[in-house]
Amino acid sequence: MDLHAELERIIPDSALAEDAWRSIRELLDDAQQAAAAQIARRDTELHAAQTKIQALVLELAHLRRMRFGARSEALGAEIRDLFQETLASDIAAAEVELRKQNEGSEPAGETKKPRERAGRQSLPEHLPRIEHRHEPESCTCGQCGKDLVKVGEDISEQLDVEPAKFFVHRHIRPQYACRGCATVTAAPIPPAVIDGGLAAPGLLAWVIVGKYLDYLPLYRLERIAARDGVTLSRSTLAEWVGRIGVALQPLADRLTEMLKQREVLHADETPVQQLDPGNGKTKRAYLWAYRSNALETGPPLVVFDYQPSRSGSHARNFLAGWQGHLMVDDFGGYKALFTQEMTELGCLAHARRKFFELNAAQPNPIAQEALARIAALYAIEARGRDLSITERAELRQTEAKPALTALCVFRRNVTADSEIV
Fold it and tell me: How much of the chain exceeds pLDDT 70, in percent?
């Protein structure tokens, strides 16, 4: 509503002097400006409050999914797998019992229906084969007595395993003496990983593979050995693990040297719980992982660096002197590396995760569009995985770069039009 027109309609111009009218108009203008400023301020405060509420709702949904996501399903992944194994065992046992019952109740002379078998994968070719030939009891026909002629053979294979068995290497070194010069000669002692140790290389490999590859605690390895009457205490096993670590350190150093010869590396860190002796508690340490790029030639290399903290100095110390392209997330500890001769490669998976979490908390058309565009980039990369470096670069320039540019334009437009938390 125009306050000036309304006031002039109520009070004619002749009723007030010009100065009075001017004062009234100035007061009205000030009031209108104050009201407009107050409305704008309240709109800003309301927008900020709505943005904050949206952020809190998304954060709450994210935390609930992290805390209760596994419980919202019927069973957790590990428990579900465990019960699926039990269910499969029970079904197989029930089928055997049912088949036995049916065999006893089948009428005499009735043809037995062949059992349907699911498709079975062939056994690996690199496994050794032990052949067992099953010949008939007689080489003559049981009906007419004539000689049998081989027309073919039926071959079936069964997979077997020989459990770990313990045995002893006995090293005998005869000693020979020379009567002329009174010297004794014997063959040198064979080299060992642990000098004077009880364990042969095969046993040490069994311990390390069981502990770090099969995730078997030392007390379980102790029990496995005890079943064969071999006493291997946990303290002895732990000592072997420590000595093996020292023996393998040159190999780790060499892997680090080979890793730094690559032009593109990936780096990430993950927290682990470390025992805190004396306090009876655990503290947080970090396992830093560095690996080669899967698209580069040469064998894949992975090196782990165990450190007590997440300080970026650990990455700087590990990569000291290396120059190349480093693929990392947006963790600030890596930023100091890129002031040197390293080039930062951003991780698209971490950017995608934010859109995924936004859409998982509440269906969002903007997040869905971003996920679809990122999926198209992933599809282009999948097509170029088996191409040569030159062909892959051409594919990225002709298809991936325009798609990535369009994604950046989409993000800028969205940011300008609305606010994504």
Answer: 80
